[in-house]
Design brief:
The chain is an alpha/beta fold and 347 residues long. It has helices at residues 42-48, 98-101, 151-154, 160-170, 186-197, 212-218, 229-234, 252-256, 279-283, 297-310, 324-332; strands at 2-8, 17-23, 30-39, 65-72, 84-87, 90-92, 113-114, 134-138, 143-144, 178-182, 201-206, 222-225, 239-244, 259-267, 288-291, 316-319, 339-343. Bound molecules: NADP nicotinamide-adenine-dinucleotide phosphate and zinc ion (ZN) (2 copies).
Amino acid sequence: MAEAKAYAAYNATDPLAPFNLDRREVGEHDVQIAIRYCGVCHSDLHQVRNEWGGTMYPLVPGHEIVGTVTKVGSKVTKFKEGDLAGVGCFVDSCRTCPSCQEGLEQYCEKGMVGTYNGTERDGTTKTYGGYSSQIVVDENYTLKVPENLDLSRVAPLLCAGITTYSPIMQWKIGQGHKVGIVGLGGLGHMAVKIAAAKGADVTVLSTSPDKEKDARDLGAHNFAVSKDKETVKSLYNTFDFIINTVSAPHDYNLFLSMLKRDGTMILLGAPPEPSPVAGFSLIGKRRRLAGSLIGGIAETQEMLDFCSEHNIMSDVEVINMDEINTAYDRMMRSDVKYRFVIDMETL
Ligand code: NAP
Ligand code: ZN
Ligand code: ZN
């Protein structure tokens, strides 16, 4: 066992505070990573506050992890000491079910092992995430991190990047498509960058009028304030796809009305409460409502390589570990430009 420093939530209401934990010994197939940066995802906040239920305290959040390999197991072939490495939202899965066999480990029929708030396959060992000094992960669930990108700006690709890349690939979104991105936060700003890089015509649909300039700088071609009734009306039947990244309950019907005939809205945001969908929002124009969960290991590697090639990185605000509680408050106010990333040296 090796002791690691960390920050944890001890319950749903108190601020996060220092915590010490033990990481396992490096096994044959494991890599030990000294964590250098960890992104702050809205899913961290949902789980810290137990908004989805089932949070196991103390909880060490963080699943946008990048760092340097400090030790490898005797059978490890993909990594050596000193390499850059990344870890995303899960650290294991059953490896035998059809989803795992297809490289869709995030949909593992036995349930993926979450990077935090989960249990290892032994059924008892709790997992702790990236708001910590080091982590030990099986090499098959560890990503190669490109050397040509700014490391602090790569961290958010491990969740926000892959979560938006995967549906863009699945629905083949690109040239000739009009795409609406709902919510310009961590996921939203990566969706803008990736969809634009794939050649789509991108419109940001935001509740924050002051984000227009940023949206255009990020690569959006158009910007609309979704709270404005006249603007919404002018966008009826406009989009082939809508990627919805909103973290709080809101009216899905409003955005469904902006889809063309046969258009699809893909839900990525995971608000704690359900929202009603009117049958007529879908029926009249044969529209579809879909969802998508992060991405598999192979696809995450493909995304990192794509970002390396196209020089795509997250726009980040690097914070110290003890600024995490303020960062959460700002995230609740949609005041994120466009991902907080913790510098682990400050732990
Ligand atoms: P974030 O950085 O906080 O961004 C969310 C954005 O949604 C905000 O910046 C805001 O954008 C908009 N928004 C917030 N409250 C709103 C409201 N009441 N009505 C309308 N718009 C609102 O969050 P994130 O890290 O991108 O995560 C977004 C959601 O995706 C979370 O629910 C998270 O748990 C989920 N998620 C899902 C997956 C997956 O695999 N499907 C993976 C990661 C995260 P504007 O200011 O532009 O309106
Ligand atoms: Zn996430
Ligand atoms: Zn499986």
